[in-house]
Specification:
Family: Belongs to the ABC transporter superfamily.
Order of helices and strands: EEEHEEHEHHHEHEHEEHH
Protein name: Branched-chain amino acid transport system ATP-binding protein
Pfam families: ABC_tran, BCA_ABC_TP_C
Bound molecules: adenosine-5'-triphosphate
CATH class of the largest domain: Alpha Beta
Keywords: ATP-binding, Nucleotide-binding, Transport
Largest sheet: 6 strands, mixed
CATH topology of the largest domain: Rossmann fold
Structural class: alpha/beta
Radius of gyration: 19 Å
Helix content: 25-40%
CATH architecture of the largest domain: 3-Layer(aba) Sandwich
CATH superfamily of the largest domain: P-loop containing nucleotide triphosphate hydrolases
Shape: globular
Distance between the termini: 26 Å
Oligomer: single chain
Number of domains: 2
Strand content: 15-25%
Number of helices: 9
GO molecular function: ATP binding
Length: about 250
Amino acid sequence: MSPVFEVANLKKAFGGLAVTNNVSLTMSPGDRIALIGPNGAGKTTFVNLVTGNLSPDSGEVRLGGELVTKVDAIGRVRRGLVRSFQVTRLFQDMTPAEHVGLAVLQRDGKTGHMFGNFLRMPDVMAEVDDLLEKLGLAFLMHRKVSEIAYGQQRLLEIAVALALKPKVLLLDEPAAGVPQSDTGRIEQALADLPADLAVLMIEHDMDLVFRFARRVIVLASGAIIFDGLPEDVTKDALVREAYLGSYANASPVA
Ligand SMILES: Nc1ncnc2c1ncn2[C@@H]1O[C@H](COP(=O)(O)OP(=O)(O)OP(=O)(O)O)[C@@H](O)[C@H]1O
């Protein structure tokens, strides 16, 4: 299958510190990849570089074969590279329906309607209903974000990302901060993501990594030190050394 996303020899340094050190990877439709690494390994910087929120010092990023290294973040979203919307970027006074509706309009280049009553547009509302229903949020679609639980806000991030119809979805710790009682809903949402979507998830929770990922990439000091199957990652000597044993006792779930 031809790759949907390619990163080649990406480099970024802050001052003298190489934070992204010659990173290359490819993703195909349907991939389920977990990107892990110790604190400060460079995971967030990598995501910022590929989404266009930071400029690399050198290297290339391609989406669907097209070189996008010089394309801005919005242009990359239009081409199908979407990062999960962060809770901190949700508007507390807006409703889930308004968030997802705006994402649908943005995707279709109809932001001129943003201040009209787009919630009366049947085609927009059909998509809003459908997505919020799938994520179990339909019952509170007209409540303010400030009134809904944190776990529901994290599900809303996923709904907003999906409204943009991504080909590649980057998820930054989708269950972080969610009470244990609500993580099942997030995991279900991850399991229900479209089969042909390529997903890369940054995650510290190794139980979630082993349940979600079919491939694991380990970043340490800005470089990829492992790219392979989940069942092999904890056996890898370089990975064990990078974590100094902190994850080495975790075991993959069959
Ligand atoms: N804008 C910046 N200027 C200078 N140094 C930075 C900047 N952004 C990140 N760094 C440094 O780059 C390194 C990698 O940071 P990054 O946030 O990408 O790591 P991470 O793997 O996402 O960490 P964590 O798991 O703790 O979120 C760290 O040493 C960090 O201090």
